């Protein structure tokens, strides 16, 4: 790590420690739409002081998870890159456990822009008849596995009668598990989680303890939760990358409220520039980025990852500006197969106009919406 980077990280983490209060979410709700349950997002705090160019909004509210699959905001918000690109616009953040509750926050106006998985994005778009959100960038590919207790589960057939955790009803990993079980002939009621395999919706922060106590026999979860379970003796039964062509699938993308996008395109572009700038830095400095991501997790969760868990988890994922739009129809079909969604029309779900403007300015290749939005 360079002296400049160490100084930047120390200063940003000190500011974050003084000003960032985070409350984890424990929300059970419908598939990415508003429900009678209220979101558990109760904490939003500025992540840094705002100085510089004046944009059209004084504040932007950004949501993301305390997961390595959300490495871009984890690193870029805390090291000051986002604030640098946003100038005098203040950043306020909310930390979520899973996508459906984050969609609720977007629908209610509590957040403007969010890092989130594809399944809640799809349903948030469909349930609003295309009015609620747009996917505006990719963020991460990979970083999700089905890990199991090897003493109880040695093969896919052994899943029958077992209890497998996912982060939340209808989040991206929940849909992936339900789809996988369906393709293997298991019958599970999607909403209750009851059936040949019991799907137990569990907050990521609680999943390792649930595994240790035997309350669950495995979990389909994002990183670093999967690697935490492996450190407790679990084994990887299915690496989700193995189920996709060339091992590439979108695990995290960036969405924006259409209302905010229309009112403040300059702010959205600045957030996308911050995302692209941060991803470029992560790609160029993988070792330092891994360390910075762990420092950010410690700030948010009060506990850093062990070196072995961090190394294993980091190796499972990669940041990307490309939303891998061609995989989204397959993600949607998984939700249909799982019984959580009727066959959707995703036309117009992407608006990559501002992202491609940022990429062009940075001398990087533009990306495609695969026929599902504005190029």
TrEMBL record:
<keyword id="KW-0813">Transport</keyword>
<keyword id="KW-0732">Signal</keyword>
<protein>
    <submittedName>
        <fullName>Aliphatic sulfonate ABC transporter substrate-binding protein</fullName>
    </submittedName>
</protein>
<dbReference type="InterPro" id="IPR044527">
    <property type="entry name" value="NrtA/CpmA_ABC-bd_dom"/>
</dbReference>
<keyword id="KW-0997">Cell inner membrane</keyword>
<keyword id="KW-1003">Cell membrane</keyword>
<dbReference type="Pfam" id="PF13379">
    <property type="entry name" value="NMT1_2"/>
</dbReference>
<comment type="similarity">
    <text>Belongs to the bacterial solute-binding protein SsuA/TauA family.</text>
</comment>
<keyword id="KW-0472">Membrane</keyword>
<dbReference type="InterPro" id="IPR010067">
    <property type="entry name" value="ABC_SsuA_sub-bd"/>
</dbReference>
């Amino acid at each position: 790590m360079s002296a400049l980077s160490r100084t930047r990280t120390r200063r940003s983490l000190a500011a974050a420690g003084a000003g960032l209060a985070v409350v984890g979410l424990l929300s059970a709700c419908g598939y990415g739409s508003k429900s009678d349950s209220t979101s558990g997002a109760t904490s939003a705090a500025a992540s840094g002081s705002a100085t510089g160019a004046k944009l059209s909004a004084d504040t932007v509210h950004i949501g993301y998870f305390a997961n390595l699959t959300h490495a871009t905001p984890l690193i870029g918000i805390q090291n000051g890159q986002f604030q640098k690109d946003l100038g005098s616009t203040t950043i306020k953040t909310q930390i979520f456990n899973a996508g459906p509750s984050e969609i609720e926050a977007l629908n209610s106006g509590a957040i403007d822009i969010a890092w989130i998985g594809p399944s809640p994005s799809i349903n948030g778009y469909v349930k609003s008849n295309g009015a609620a959100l747009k996917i505006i960038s990719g963020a991460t590919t990979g970083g999700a596995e089905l890990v199991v207790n090897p003493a109880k589960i040695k093969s896919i057939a052994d899943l029958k009668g077992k209890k497998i955790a996912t982060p939340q009803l209808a989040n991206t990993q929940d849909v992936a598990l339900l789809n996988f079980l369906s393709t293997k002939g298991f019958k599970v009621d999607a909403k209750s989680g009851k059936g040949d395999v019991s799907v137990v919706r569990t907050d990521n922060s609680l999943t390792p303890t649930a595994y240790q106590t035997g309350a669950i026999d495995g979990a389909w979860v994002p990183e670093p939760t999967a690697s935490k379970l492996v450190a407790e003796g679990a084994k990887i039964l299915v690496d989700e990358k193995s189920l996709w062509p060339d091992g590439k699938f979108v695990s995290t993308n960036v969405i924006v409220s259409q209302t905010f996008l229309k009112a403040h395109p300059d702010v959205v572009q600045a957030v996308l520039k911050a995302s692209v700038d941060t991803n470029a830095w992560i790609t160029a400095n993988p070792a330092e980025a891994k360390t910075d991501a762990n420092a950010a997790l410690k700030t948010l969760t009060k506990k850093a990852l062990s070196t072995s868990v961090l190394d294993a988890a980091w190796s499972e994922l990669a940041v990307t500006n490309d939303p891998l739009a061609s995989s989204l129809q397959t993600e949607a079909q998984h939700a249909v197969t799982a019984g959580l969604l009727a066959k959707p029309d995703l036309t117009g779900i992407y608006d990559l106009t501002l992202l491609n403007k940022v990429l062009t300015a940075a001398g990087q290749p533009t990306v495609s919406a695969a026929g599902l939005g504005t190029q």
